[in-house]
Amino acid sequence: MKRTFNIAIIDDHFAIRDGYKFCAEKIPFIKIVDTFESFVLFEQSQQVYDLILLDIELKNSNGLDSCKAYKQAGNSTKIIILSSYHEEPFIVEAYKNQADGYLFKDAPFEEVLLAFEKVLLKGDKHFNLEAIETLFKHHENEKKTSKLAQVKITKREAEIIHLICEGFSNKEISETIHRSVTTVSKHRYNIMQKFGFHKSIELVNFAIERGIFKVKRIVKKSNLS
């Protein structure tokens, strides 16, 4: 006899709950489908579930936080985040909080079925192509940021970066630090090469993020290219 599964759908909008309940009940290996409008009500249930479809925005709680706490408590129940958000922060946080999948609320029935098969029958995770691409991009950006954070700069380079952020031209920087324009140009080129930047605005953004430059006043003028 093939195994069947119990699932819970937690969403504070009745149309979403009923819609996914209707879809789930059409799947042969799904036995019980219960719906809840909050995570608190779900936790009060005595039923054992194999999978939770969990909305992000719930009454008095956040689905991503609930997912993290539930997983950290050692619960083995699978969780698929159910969301209308396609933005990177939500997908990345779902992944980091050990969610077993991420379904967009406008996903077609075929994808819902695929997600259930992967998570319940195969023990895999389900992040569709868009979500996977988002996670890959985030991972690459994190690697790049980590690599940049390891780049060492001299006191002179830090001074020049600060002046570049202020909007100073090479000539103005040379007058400020009392070095030739050629020397400043060389420093500037070496700095850009070190970080692998092609435009000054990339350097400025990174300098602000890393704390090399703090915005305290209006930039003198724009020489960013």
Describe the structure.
- By secondary structure, this protein is an alpha/beta fold.
- The chain folds into 2 domains: 5-140, Rossmann fold; 151-210, Arc Repressor Mutant, subunit A (Orthogonal Bundle).
- The protein contains 10 helices and 8 strands.
- It has helices at residues 14-24, 39-44, 63-72, 88-96, 109-121, 129-149, 155-165, 170-177, 181-195, 200-210; strands at 5-10, 30-36, 51-55, 57-58, 61-62, 78-83, 101-104, 126-127.
- The strands form 2 sheets. A 6-stranded parallel β-sheet has the order 2-1-3-6-7-8, sandwiched between helices.
- A hairpin with a 2-residue loop joins strand 4 and strand 5 (61-62).
- The longest helix is centred in the middle third of the chain and has 21 residues, at 129-149.
- The protein is elongated and about 80 Å long.
- The relative contact order is 0.09.
Keywords summarizing the entry:
disordered C terminus; single chain; 51% helix; 225 residues; six-stranded parallel β-sheet; Arc Repressor Mutant, subunit A; 8 strands; alpha/beta; two-stranded antiparallel ribbon; Rossmann fold
Précis, in short:
This protein has 225 residues and is α/β, with parallel strands linked by helices.
